[in-house]
């Protein structure tokens, strides 16, 4: 499964070389900021630069301009010692499982312009599919990009590498597109990262090797199995899961607790003062969505183990999921609000130890994550529903009264802080998680709301695409057809998880001939 080329220097030496390159690129980043100024400055660009073919890290370091270099000096230096960011990925041509209009693709999308657009979104997989260049495995000391064995699907724009939780919605979209082998490649790449590093990295870069993202790998495996019935694929995953030691799991869950690893980077959700980034306290928060994802993972592993006859393992993880279910309802559920709320631990003692539960420690600010546990209704039809129909309806009513429902979808929060995971932005993963939960709640009224939210989201994506020619990373849910903004970098296009969610919604709900798709119809 690992790339066949040897790692130059091997082991500790290779790690030291990777750290030396990253240190150099961080110096380049600092000098570039001085030379080019903060306007339109993207710090990620510089740490993604591979060394030029005829350059060495030592020579690049020795020649680094200092003492306030001019723009021209810095441009000449970068051109001399580095290749273009992203040049260490190569186009995968047409993926072998890609068809322009695959058999069985979106059979219930009847309206002509909706179907034509869906096929254009489907075709974007070709543009986003890459392979890591062989040179990366041969000389990892010259790249921050990490070698991976299979095809990759990148999110798009500045995101020139695989990302963990983005990949879940990419896989969901690929399954709609009948691109089963590409979906499997994505999962096998993530499994390779587990085997090499002990957990799935935030992204496939050397600067991400100390953190992860929400644990959705088992969900990808389950969805691929449900679509293909590939038992060998499930057995492979069980073998990989068994390699995770208890220590590795504990490290993994601890890592997920930092802000970037939540996926919500950045949001007032993690700040004691929503106007002050220095008050981030992420590691002292018990998050609703993280516990939802871990419970789902425990259920998945129990399911896989039972499927292949590992009854003891199945029972262990089944009991763990039941215990977590009880903990979510006892610690995070708020009866007055009919929502699940993040729980804030006291910051004394580094948030370690045993604490008495206090209702005042629940964060009563409203975020879309407060409704994510509904997603567990959509999983494992053989299991008891996470939330029964009556409680699901109460949660639905709470969502309707929350202020999060906007003309173009579900807002991430009610706080307009300028952070990208706050109002007025809406994100594809959150729409999908909540819609799927409502859809599978057993309530006809909740299903209607799910379809209404999906319709709003499809229309805003469609109009933005028609206006800009691109799918966007996030959208302004106050105004239909407007892409989102805010945050630490320019808004991005491409875009992996947005494409996946649109295809999933169209697959689930269809689009009748008499239903208009543009924003004017909303």
Task: Quickly describe the structure.
The chain is mostly helical and about 525 residues long. It has helices spanning about 10-35, 45, 55-60, 70-80, 110-130, 135-140, 165-175, 180-195, 215-230, 230-240, 245-255, 290-305, 310-330, 390-400, 430-440, 445-470, 495-510, and strands at about 90, 130, 150-155, 285, 335, 340, 345, 405, 410, 425, 475. A hairpin with a 2-residue loop joins β8 and β9 (about 410).
Outline the structure in words.
This protein is mostly helical. The chain folds into two domains: 17-85, no CATH class; 86-509, Glycosyltransferase. Helices cover 46% and strands 5% of the residues. The protein has 17 helices and eleven strands. It has helices at 11-36, 43-47, 57-62, 71-81, 112-128, 134-138, 164-176, 180-197, 217-228, 231-242, 246-256, 288-307, 311-332, 389-401, 428-439, 444-468, 496-509, and strands at residues 89-91, 129-132, 152-153, 285-286, 333-334, 339-340, 343-344, 405-406, 409-410, 425-426, 475-476. The strands form five sheets. Strands 1-2-3 form a three-stranded antiparallel beta sheet. Helix 5 packs antiparallel against helix 17 (496-509) and helix 8 (180-197) packs antiparallel against helix 9. It is globular, with a radius of gyration of 23 Å. 47% of the residues are buried. Residues 1-9, 243-248 and 251-257 have low confidence and may be disordered. Belongs to the glycosyl hydrolase 37 family. It is an enzyme of class 3 (hydrolase).
């Amino acid at each position: 499964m690992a790339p066949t080329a040897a790692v130059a220097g091997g082991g500790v030496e290779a790690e030291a070389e990777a750290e030396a390159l990253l240190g150099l690129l961080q110096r380049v980043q600092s000098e570039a900021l001085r030379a080019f100024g903060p306007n339109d400055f993207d710090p990620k660009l510089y740490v993604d630069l591979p060394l030029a073919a005829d350059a060495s890290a030592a020579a690049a370091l020795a020649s680094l301009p200092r003492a306030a270099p001019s723009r021209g000096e810095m441009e000449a230096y970068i051109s001399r010692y580095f290749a273009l960011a992203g040049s260490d990925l190569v186009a995968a041509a047409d993926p072998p499982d890609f068809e322009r209009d695959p058999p069985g693709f979106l059979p219930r999308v009847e309206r002509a312009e909706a179907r034509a657009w869906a096929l254009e979104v489907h075709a974007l997989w070709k543009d986003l599919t890459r392979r890591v260049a062989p040179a990366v495995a041969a000389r990892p000391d010259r790249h921050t990009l990490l070698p991976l064995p299979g095809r990759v699907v990148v999110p798009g724009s500045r995101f020139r590498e695989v990302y963990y939780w983005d990949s879940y919605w990419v896989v969901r979209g690929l399954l709609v597109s009948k691109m089963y082998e590409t979906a499997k490649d994505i999962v096998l790449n993530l499994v390779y990262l587990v085997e090499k590093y002990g957990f799935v990295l935030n992204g496939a870069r050397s600067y991400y090797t100390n953190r992860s993202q929400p644990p959705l790998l088992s969900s990808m495996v389950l969805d691929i199995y449900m679509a293909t019935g590939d038992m060998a694929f499930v057995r492979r995953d069980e073998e990989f899961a068994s390699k995770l030691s208890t220590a590795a799991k504990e490290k993994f869950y601890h890592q997920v607790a930092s802000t970037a690893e939540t996926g919500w980077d950045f949001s007032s959700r993690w700040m004691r003062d929503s106007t002050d980034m220095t008050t981030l306290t992420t590691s002292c928060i018990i998050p609703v969505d993280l516990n939802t994802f871990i419970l789902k993972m425990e259920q998945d592993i129990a399911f896989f183990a039972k499927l292949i006859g590992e009854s003891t393992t199945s029972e262990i993880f089944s009991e763990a999921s039941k215990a977590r279910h009880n903990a979510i309802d006892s610690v995070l559920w708020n009866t007055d609000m009919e929502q699940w709320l993040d729980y804030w631990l006291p910051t004394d003692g580094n948030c370690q130890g045993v604490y008495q539960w206090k209702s005042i420690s629940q964060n009563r600010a409203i975020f879309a994550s407060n409704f994510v546990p509904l997603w567990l209704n959509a999983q494992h039809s053989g299991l008891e529903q996470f939330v029964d129909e009556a409680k699901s309806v109460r949660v639905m009513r709470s969502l309707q009264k929350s202020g999060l429902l906007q003309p173009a979808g579900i807002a991430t929060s009610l706080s307009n802080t300028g952070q990208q995971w706050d109002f007025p932005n809406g994100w594809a993963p959150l729409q999908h998680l909540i819609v799927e939960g409502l859809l599978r709640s057993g309530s006809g009224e909740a299903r209607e709301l799910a379809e209404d939210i999906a319709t709003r989201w499809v229309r805003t994506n469609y109009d933005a695409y028609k206006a800009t020619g691109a799918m966007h990373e996030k959208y302004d849910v106050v105004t239909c057809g407007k892409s989102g903004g805010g945050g630490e970098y320019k808004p991005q296009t491409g875009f992996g998880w947005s494409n996946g969610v649109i295809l999933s919604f169209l697959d689930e709900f269809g689009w009748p001939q008499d239903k208009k798709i543009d924003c004017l119809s909303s």
